[in-house]
Design brief:
Elements lengths: L1 H19 L1 H6 L2 E6 L4 H11 L10 E7 L7 H4 L2 H12 L2 E3 L2 H6 L3 E4 L7 H9 L5 E3 L7 H14 L3 E2 L8 H7 L8 E7 L14 H11 L3 E8 L3 E8 L3 E8 L10 E5 L4 E3 L7 H13 L6 H19 L5 E2 H7 L17
Parallel strand pairs: 1-2, 1-4, 2-3, 4-5, 5-6, 7-10
Antiparallel strand pairs: 7-11, 8-9, 8-13, 9-10, 11-12
């Protein structure tokens, strides 16, 4: 009788442990699938997960399956698909499958890494059918309308996901963002923003310095003005409290350029970014998210960042007139509850 009671107690403890810590127990066996093998991210993420000998190895997960994808009309995509596919298959043992549905059936979570933002909405809809959590690489989509549609579809399906630039977790960016406990009075972020067909002109590499800017400034951007030339664009956002955040997008620098920097102006002084980073901190956040299903970046902040970029495009077409983020999000179909605050009406 005592032995049976002991066995029952032990089984109950194990069951409760499994209920309370399901993600930690599954962490060592987390299977990840990739959608889109046309970006260096697919190779860089896989080597960190699948190669225990790599100095940046992240334990707890492994890429086991992938869908090739690719965009034939985008040279930056078409020229790299075959090489990355071969590397993942032959070097890292990733199974290459013919459909997104097949990939989802073999994994616990998905990373959509397609370079081109145009197919992201369709790819997300296929992943949502599986109910698996997913990371969506930048740009979230090729239009703000599609970005809003992705968030709406994920909310309806009750499937968690997030999207973010790796720069958000660069040690140098975090050091600047946390330099003071009070909000930054202003900040300047610069970096490459080469133009790529079929997308708003700041969506590609412009997302990196823009996300670094928002990492410092936080949410609450009200409106945007842009001054542009063939070589560069200066985008100034006005935040609540009359704080100013400036993005200096350098169109002359190529994709892959390491020329990024962030400067924070605070109550106590000025702090400049001293060092860069790599994909490792972002990938740690992705794995942690797959284990906990708690996104490290909110929908509100991601939508605000892309609304900032969209408003900048509209301001350029209107010769630098201010464009409210609420307006661009509303036109893109965002629900009223998702809109940022309205700019205050100046007192007469």
């Amino acid at each position: 009788m005592a032995a049976r009671h002991l066995r029952f107690t032990f089984a109950l403890i194990m069951a409760l442990t499994a209920m309370l810590t399901p993600h930690s127990l599954m962490a060592e066996n987390l299977r990840i699938g990739i959608v889109g093998l046309d970006s260096s991210h697919c190779e860089q993420f896989t080597l960190r997960l699948n190669d225990p000998a790599n100095p940046s190895h992240i334990p707890g997960a492994r890429v086991v399956a992938a869908y090739v994808g690719g965009s034939p009309d985008l040279p930056e995509s078409a020229s790299r698909v075959q090489g990355f596919t071969t590397t993942l298959k032959d070097k890292y043992g990733v199974q290459i499958l013919g459909t997104i549905t097949e990939v989802c059936a073999k994994v616990d979570a998905v990373m959509i890494l397609s370079l081109d933002g145009r197919p992201h909405l369709a790819q997300v809809r296929e992943v949502l059918l599986s109910g698996k959590p997913f990371f969506l690489d930048k740009p979230v989509a090729a239009s703000l309308k599609d970005i809003v549609a992705i968030y709406q579809a994920a909310e309806e399906a009750k499937v968690p996901f997030f999207s973010a630039s790796a720069m958000r977790w660069y040690p140098g960016v975090i050091e600047v963002a946390t330099a003071e406990s009070t909000p930054a009075l202003a900040a300047i972020s610069y970096g490459p923003s080469p133009l790529l067909p079929f997308h708003p002109d700041l969506y590609f590499y412009g997302i990196h310095p823009a996300e670094a800017l928002f990492t410092v400034m936080g949410t609450g951007c009200l409106e945007v003005r842009r001054t542009a030339s063939p070589n560069a664009s200066v985008v100034t956002g006005r935040w609540e409290g009359d704080r100013l955040g400036t993005l200096h997008a350098i169109h002359a620098l190529p994709m892959g350029s390491a020329h990024y920097k962030l400067t924070r102006f605070g109550e106590k002084g000025v702090v400049e970014q001293k060092n860069q980073g790599d994909y490792t901190p972002l990938l740690r956040e992705i794995v942690k998210f797959f284990q906990t299903r708690q996104p490290p970046v909110s929908r509100a902040q991601t939508l605000e960042i892309y609304a900032f970029l969209e408003a900048a495009e509209q301001s350029r077409s209107q010769n630098g007139k201010p464009v409210a983020l609420r307006d661009v999000l509303r036109k893109a179909g965002a629900p009223e509850a998702w809109l940022p605050p309205a700019p205050a009406v100046p007192k007469s």
